């Protein structure tokens, strides 16, 4: 993203065999980040730059990494001179972001996977001070509709890290598949992660006849969490409730209102009427699920969905009607509020903060819950005025499963809508709020729903370069952003992607 402040100089700094990298060895995390940088330089340039302890070597020609406690966690300063590159940061993540900027200053060949000859390994001399506008800069990856293997998820994380994004909302459960191992409930993955066929196009009757399966073991998920953390990214698990739960009900029908003979993993898209029954055994199940997730996902934030929950089954269910009488409820919508409150209270007691789609505002959700505004900006504005923290994810700006061109015949089949790069870039997260209310907007997110995205190459096509536009909205202050300037830089960005 466009840095906050940049001062250009005339000369250039050249990487050569005589340079060194100096880093405080006392900060192991910072040292490891610099080691990754050294290895990438070696792989693409053949220049093997020795790393020395900055506390032992006062005079260094090359690149020095200085720990500066006065900078905030994600801020950094890069000062490229003719003979010395000085990087200042207070943390490993600030150093990581500084290195992403150094990559952008170097020739594009630095992004390669092998040695490339005939390249002048130099960078322009500049001084950059940089710090993010928003603390939450996210992307949602839906692996329920179409499962993505571990290496693909790691590539997804690499793309996020390159643009200094820092939150990955992992959509692990939905009607069409449960993707995370829960040891106490093995059928969630043996049954809930497998669907017999998948809807093709718009017609629910047309299916591909192919089995779709896939799930992550807890060890695989922990590996992905570690990988993301090394790149400054926190993974936020999403367990959908009380709706979007057909995959779980297919595995354990006793969690439902038991109005049907058989529940099956969803093969079509849309909203299913079969949802969790808000009875005590269901709450015990959900608490067990979250308890196992705590050992995998250290994130403070946990996403519980809370959207698109039909109440048809609850109207017919005797247990639901009894619960309503016990709690003095007048209509079934209050059962959804009750469910969200119960789970929020449980997670809060475990030191977690709930994120939910903007439907959670329909009940009296607590002020500690974070509202994710997806039905336009309205829910976010309402949440911020109410005093809740908000992440803006308006579908008309930030849904990356929407078409990127109005000439849809030349585009991959999509769920609909139209969001091009210009529309993403035009998002103003705090629009419609006073300066004080705007402080409640903690960030923005793009959602990549995968109903019609079956391969990672298709996912990349939908992500790039829209993700870079979203990253700049999240990082660069509104007044410092200019779309024509972004387009000029995007030309080089596409070469980096290649």
How would the blueprint of this fold be written?
Elements lengths: L4 E10 L5 E4 L4 H18 L5 E3 L8 E6 L8 E5 L3 E6 L2 H14 L16 E9 L5 E7 L7 H13 L4 E5 L1 E2 L2 E2 L8 H4 L3 E2 L3 E2 L2 E5 L4 E2 L4 H12 L4 E8 L4 H6 L28 H15 L6 E5 L6 H5 L1 H9 L6 H17 L3 E5 L12 E4 L4 H9 L3 E3 L2 H4 L22 H5 L9 H4 L2 E8 L7 H8 L2 H10 L7 H15 L1
Parallel strand pairs: 2-3, 2-4, 4-6, 8-9, 8-21, 9-16, 16-17, 17-18, 18-19, 19-20, 20-21
Antiparallel strand pairs: 1-7, 5-6, 5-7, 10-11, 12-15, 13-14
Helix pairs in contact: 1-2, 3-5, 7-10
Task: Write out key terms for the chains shown.
seven-stranded mixed β-sheet; eight-stranded parallel beta barrel; elongated
Walk me through the structure.
The chain is α/β, with parallel strands linked by helices and 498 residues long. It is built from 17 helices and 21 strands. Helix 1 runs parallel beside helix 2, helix 3 runs parallel beside helix 5 and helix 7 runs parallel beside helix 10 (333-349). The mean pLDDT is 96.
Shape descriptor: elongated
- Cross-sheet strand order for the largest sheet: 8-9-16-17-18-19-20-21
Q: Which radius of gyration do the C-alpha atoms yield?
A: 24 Å
What structural class do you assign from the helix and strand content?
alpha/beta
User: What's the mean pLDDT score?
Assistant: 96
Beta-strand percentage? 15-25%
Secondary structure tally: strands = 21
Helix content bin:
25-40%
Please count the helical segments.
17
Main sheet specs: 8 strands, parallel, barrel
- Unreliable stretches, pLDDT < 50, 5 or more residues? none
Assembly type of the chains comes to: single chain
Termini separation: 18 Å
């Amino acid at each position: 993203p466009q840095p906050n402040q940049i001062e250009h100089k005339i000369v250039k700094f050249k990487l050569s065999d005589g340079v060194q990298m100096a880093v405080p060895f006392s900060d192991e995390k910072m040292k490891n980040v610099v080691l990754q940088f050294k290895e990438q330089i070696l792989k693409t340039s053949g220049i093997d730059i020795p790393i020395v302890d900055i506390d032992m070597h006062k005079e260094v020609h090359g690149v020095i990494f200085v720990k500066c406690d006065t900078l905030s966690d994600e801020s950094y300063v890069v000062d490229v001179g003719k003979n010395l590159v000085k990087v200042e940061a207070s943390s490993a993540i600030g150093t990581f972001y500084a290195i992403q900027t150094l990559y952008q200053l170097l020739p594009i060949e630095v992004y390669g996977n092998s040695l490339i000859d005939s390249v002048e390994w130099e960078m322009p001399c500049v001084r950059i001070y940089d710090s993010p506008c928003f603390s939450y800069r996210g992307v949602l990856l839906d692996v329920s509709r179409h499962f993505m293997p571990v290496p693909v998820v790691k590539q997804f994380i690499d793309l996020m890290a390159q643009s200094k994004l820092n939150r990955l909302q992992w959509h692990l459960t939905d009607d069409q598949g449960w993707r995370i191992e829960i040891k106490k409930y093995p059928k969630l993955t043996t049954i809930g992660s497998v669907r017999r066929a998948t809807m093709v196009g718009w017609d629910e009757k047309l299916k591909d006849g192919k089995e779709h399966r896939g799930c992550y073991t807890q060890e695989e998920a922990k590996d992905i969490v570690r990988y993301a953390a090394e790149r400054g990214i926190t993974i936020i698990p999403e367990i959908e409730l009380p709706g979007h739960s057909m995959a779980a009900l297919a595995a354990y029908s006793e969690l439902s209102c038991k109005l049907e003979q058989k529940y099956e993993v969803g093969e079509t898209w849309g909203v299913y009427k079969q949802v969790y029954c808000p009875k005590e055994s269901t709450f015990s199940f959900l608490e067990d699920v979250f308890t196992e997730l705590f050992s995998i996902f250290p994130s403070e934030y946990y996403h519980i969905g809370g959207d698109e929950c039909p109440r048809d089954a609850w109207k017919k269910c005797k247990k639901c009607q009894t619960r309503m009488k016990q709690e003095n409820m007048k209509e079934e919508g209050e059962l959804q509020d009750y469910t969200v409150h119960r789970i929020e209270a449980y997670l809060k007691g475990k030191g977690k903060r709930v994120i939910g789609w903007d439907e959670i505002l329909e009940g009296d959700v607590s002020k500690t819950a974070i509202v994710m505004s997806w039905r336009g900006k309205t829910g976010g504005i309402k949440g911020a005025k109410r005093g809740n923290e908000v992440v803006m994810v308006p579908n008309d700006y930030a849904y990356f499963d929407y078409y990127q061109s109005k000439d849809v015949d030349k585009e991959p089949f999509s769920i609909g809508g139209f969001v091009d790069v210009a529309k993403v870039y035009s998002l103003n997260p705090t629009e419609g709020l006073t300066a004080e209310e705007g402080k409640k907007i903690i960030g923005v997110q793009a959602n990549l729903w995968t109903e019609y995205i079956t391969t990672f190459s298709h996912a990349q096509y939908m992500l790039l370069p829209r993700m870079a536009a979203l990253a700049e909205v999240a990082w660069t202050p509104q007044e410092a952003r200019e779309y024509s300037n972004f387009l000029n830089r995007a030309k080089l960005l596409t070469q980096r992607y290649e």
